[in-house]
Amino acid sequence: MTVVPAQQSGGSGGTSGLYDVIELILDRGLVIDAFVRVSLVGIEILKVDVRVVIASVDTYLRFAEACNRLDLESGPNKSPGLPEMVGEITESGARGKSKGALSGAAQTVSDAFKQAREESRSGDEEPAKRSRRTTSRARKEEQE
Amino acid sequence: MTTYIYGITHTGHPALPEGMGGIGDPERPVRVLRHGNLAALVSDSPEDLRPKRRDLLAHQSVLDEAGAGGPVLPMRFGSLAQDDQAVLDVLDELADHYEERLRALEGKAEYNVKAAHDEQAVLHQVLAENPELRAMAEANRAAGGGTYEQKLQLGERLTNAVQAREAGDGIEVRRALEPCAEAVSEGPEGSGWLANYSFLVRRDAADGFVAAVEELRKTQPHLDVRVNGPLPPYSFVDLGPARPAADAAQAR
Predict the structure, then answer these.
(1) CA neighbours closer than 13 Å in the CB half-sphere of residue B179
(2) Where in the cell is it found (chain B) (predicted)?
């Protein structure tokens, strides 16, 4: 599966916090005509992070496989569509998510940013995109 | 020496992060330029400023620090003025506009919300709601996964069903959270989430907003909802007299 709840991806909270809001820092905020802006050439790669479903043969096969696995996990004698079972599974999914989500929502991002900043100060000279790739890779490994 | 601008606030702000480490390596200390009722948070800029992780974080941290004490209009990352005087000239020229914005954003912060489908959960939901798809899935499974054509056929139907949910779920996210916010702004396009919204939330109503997010997660368990905030109100500063298109062209 390639659609993974991003909260499960590894890495420090600070770093993932920055990636979550990077498009705001780069695309929103006050712009003043009299000032020039630093060139952002090369940074577009940061925003390539497709999570919506794209209709393609690959997606079709992936969903069919995922669906197949879903059924097998549910046991051979159970209909995968029984409502109580859907409830059960999604409920446990929600619990897992709420946990990560609670800490994400309740904690101010400022702490996370400070943390990430200290990390970056300890000699990390890499541009942001490098870390992004690492994160994606970690996420991919997690899925496998 | 070029001057880097982090944001604009008013001189009555109680805790400006003067002297805090800003962009660059070594970090350039944050300075405050005052003109009338307005103050600009600036620092010197390194000559080779690039959008590196440490500099993006520095920009965000300075604004975060300042935003905790009072309203700040955050600049987009990477704004450079020829010198300090050029910043003061802009404060003078656009004073009324900035003062109005600072009043409007007093006591408010941005919360960015992104949502994506949890694939397993959304497939379960699609199957639960569609007996025909369920039957196809069962038949395929009974046949050991089905032929390539059968897989494609099932996969296409599933994809369509999931896609159809994306738009509806995006609207649902907005509808669930909008009542707890003063304003809402759609996030930049192309970031690939089924929902990417920024909400302007009163700081004294932040608990209610967070509770609404929790409620949304409970009622829509097939959604993976991520919240970041409180943030400087990047999406609510107005573009002022600038021309966004021209600016984008310049940035490339």
Answers:
(1) 8
(2) Gas vesicle
